[in-house]
User: Fold this.
Amino acid sequence: MFQPEQIHEFIVQTCQALGSEPREAELVADQLVAANLAGHDSHGVGMLPSYVDGVVNGRLAVNSHPTVVVDGGSLLTLDGNAGYGQVNGYEAMSMGMERAADNGVAVVGLRNSYHIGRIGHWAEQCAAGGFASLHLVNVIGHPPLVAAYGGAEARFGTNPFCAAVPGRDGRPGFLLDMATSIIAGGKARVAANKGVKVPPNTIIDVDGNLTDDPNAFWYTDPTGKRGGALVAFGDHKGSGLAVMCELLSAALIGGETAHPKNARDGRIINNMLSVVIDPAATGDTETFYDEIELFRDFVLESRLRSDCDEILVPGQPEEIARAERANGFDVDPVTVDQLRTSARRAGITDEAIGALIGNA
Ligand code: NAD
Assistant:
């Protein structure tokens, strides 16, 4: 089991060894560790090896900041310059909250950022400032992962949708943060690493059949042709939401969509459209908080469906995971090996790695 501070320091040192300024390294470590603590291992510390790979191959720019492309007051378009998504996301949300405080609402387009990780992290940043927010995201740079409803070949990314309303104490009252595929791509990676199945009918194999084998998603035939795709949630509705995430998060703000005319060079690029709203500007804040609390109680007090044993509101599973993982969390051995390898690539000695996260 890793202590949060222990793995945080490992990430900070790995990023700094690759040239990141201390603040950048902290922001990367903050978000990755927070994702594990929220129960989302798919977007936690296991992402570090792909970031190291991005920096080493010159695809991920260190010490980069978003630049303003369009400044229309409450409408802001930023270019993330393929820099760390943890810096781009943090600075984009900070700017969005400043603009929303001035104008009641801000629409912030962040294009061409390296991977921005768990999107709920950005909604939580807004909620901590007292703002409601919604976020539509696409994923490009590597081959598409998800098939459109009815299709057997991947045509877009796992395009997350996220929305949150703040609670009275600055934490989200509700936070919906989801991939538009039934399972996130990272969850197939984690399942393949652990040697376990994914839920039934979440992957389409190279022959167009539904399966629970995560390896079918990563299948490549001898000619290098990729097979396998993730299934969008909710049939045509989830597939349709993913399509709108693609267009609103990217095409609308000058970002790239997933078609093959856009380059694929192994980068993980996200585009994100965020709408940040100040509840004080749209109505009465106290009534807003009261309604959130009364509605939450009403939802949770429902009788249970016969095949279910609990009701949760969006964001509650993450709250539960945080309480359970506060003193540490497990990382599977394959991922730990990948972390050690990536630290070595960054130039950290075996001795230092052992001191930080132990040797196998
Ligand atoms: P998930 O299925 O675990 O949860 C989705 C949402 O449903 C969450 O808001 C959660 O609170 C809620 N939820 C879960 N179980 C619930 C229950 N029983 N009752 C009520 N609500 C419940 O999440 P996911 O779709 O696997 O996504 C995982 C993460 O991957 C997200 O944080 C997402 O932002 C991230 N992601 C990032 C990218 C990227 O490119 N950066 C791409 C895809 C996904």
In short: The chain has three domains: 1-63+330-360, 65-177+237-324, 182-231. The mean pLDDT is 94.
